[in-house]
């Protein structure tokens, strides 16, 4: 790699890093291009050299941070034989991914539950749809194997995802999320889902 390419790559990474911080704090709609330029200490032509617009920068962030983690999550979950193990793997792996850089889940929650923005409408839907389809497949397999009672697998997937996502949303806002997003919490949530709160 030439020095020029190396500098360009570093600039692109700095833009993405500063945008991730701002989007995760304010949400997509409340973050202006000017805010990103100021934080990254670059000019507008520099930003547009690397990205078409703010929406393409956001798309690049989603692909970088969620694409690979989604592939790893699927591989880990699919490698488990029993329903309880698959659900635990899903919960624990999700917790671990979110603790690596808490800006990433904050970005998702800030943007997903913020105002609708037409230019990025559907970007997060694709992400959540992939995760939801994975959990739905896990539920269908659990029903086929008679590990859980027959029910609508999509409803079961929705219930389980809500159980996992709410602690992520709450605890990644704290200073030490690993203290809360623990293997014990993952195990407890799976137990609550499978057995109820008897």
Task: Describe, in plain words, how this protein is organized in 3D.
The protein has a single domain, classed as Tetracycline Repressor, domain 2 (Orthogonal Bundle), CATH 1.10.357.10. Helices cover 74% and strands 0% of the residues. The protein is built from nine helices and no strands. Helix 1 (3-26) packs across helix 4 (54-78). The longest helix is centred in the middle third of the chain and has 25 residues, at 54-78. It is elongated. The chain starts with a helix and ends with a helix.
Q: What is the arithmetic mean of pLDDT?
A: 91
User: What's the helix-strand series?
Assistant: HHHHHHHHH
Report the principal-axis shape.
elongated
CATH-defined topology: Tetracycline Repressor, domain 2
Brief synopsis:
The protein is mainly alpha-helical.
List keywords for this structure.
198 residues, mainly alpha, Tetracycline Repressor, domain 2
Summarize the SSE layout with pairings.
Layout: H1 3-26, H2 33-40, H3 44-50, H4 54-78, H5 83-100, H6 103-112, H7 123-144, H8 153-171, H9 183-195
Helix pairs in contact: 1-2, 1-4, 1-6, 4-5, 4-7, 5-7, 5-9, 7-8, 8-9
